[in-house]
Structures are given as structure tokens and as C-alpha cells.
Amino acid sequence: MKQTISPSAIAARPDFDAIAAWIKPGAKILDLGCGDGSLLRYLRDTRGVFGYGVEIDDGNLLQCFRNGINVIQNDLEAGLSGFESDSFDYVILSQTLQAMRHTEGIIGEILRVGKEGIVSFPNFGYWKNRMQVITGHMPVSQALPYHWYDTPNIHLCTLGDFETLCCQCNARILERRVMNNNRPVHFLPNLMGMLAIYRFERQR
Known about the structure:
The chain has 204 residues and is of the alpha/beta class. The chain has helices at residues 7-12, 15-22, 38-47, 58-66, 103-113, 127-134, 159-168, 189-192, and strands at 28-32, 50-55, 71-73, 88-94, 114-122, 171-180, 183-184, 195-202.
């Protein structure tokens, strides 16, 4: 029986709809750090994509299989040498960038393997995060739910930081969407936005 994602699950991941809006129907997708395969399943159901997930966690791999998702077990930190250049229409890194040790390396691999890259991440510049730092504490929020001592996040960044990284990696930003819960943010996005989603390609 074909499973679908519940409305509550979509509400918990507002980047899903934003990412789906950028994906052409029938596209070939590579989802890096795909977790239980929810995003790929959502894109399959809503955009008719064909794709693969890359995941290292055994429990998530089992969930991917249950969700009918093609998944490859691999450590993203080791790169994407198993994939040929320009072999996917889109390579997605959804709320995983901040957990990567070799951030420049993975952006470079996204640009090599995919015609376009899509990345989403929690914005460390969000005003509530700044207030928690000012009061002497590392931020804990809906987008950053971990405490400093148990967090997998090692490279938190702001919108400005990510855009600088794109310049350094020879990536041209095509579109940006900044959100606070399920609402788009247009005014002072680096201050008012909780979550950022970018679409980019290699600089020609």
C-alpha cells in the first residue's frame, strides 16, 4: 500500500513545500542525508520524481526501505565519488548542512554531481537565537532543538555566511526563500527568518 505523508508531518517540515516548488516534474533527485526518506517520498508523490537517498544511519535506512525509497548507505563526509558528474537534476541537502564537518567539500560535490543544488538550514542569525546568546546561552528552538552538549550541529551559520560560502565555492544563487514557521519572510530576513532554503548552480 502506498504511504503518504500526513499534514502534521508537512507542517513540521515547512522546507518540504518550498523545495517541491522548485523541482520540475519527473526530475532525477539525489537527497543527501535523507533520514527516513520522507522528503523523497513527498517529492515522488507530489512531483513524480525518481531519486536516490544517501544515509548512514541503520535505523533510517530501514525506514527508507519501508517507505519504498531507493537508498544507499554512505558517509557524506567521504564525498560522492560513487556518482558521476551532472548525473542528477537536483542534489538536495535538507537541514543537514549544519551537521557537516567538511562544508566546502559537500557544496563542491553537490555542484559536481547535480545540475542544481538545494540546501536548507536553520538560520543562526534569527533574532531569538541572538537573544539567547546575548543572555549567555546557546540557542535552543524549534529549528535548533538540541542543547549544546548533545547537538549534532557543528557549523551553524547565518544567511550572510552561507551566501559568502557560495561565492567561495563558485556557486551562483538562483533563488532564496526564508521562512518563520510556515510563513515567508521578506523584511530583514537574516534577522526575522528561522529557516533558509537556497537553490543554486555552478557559476558558468
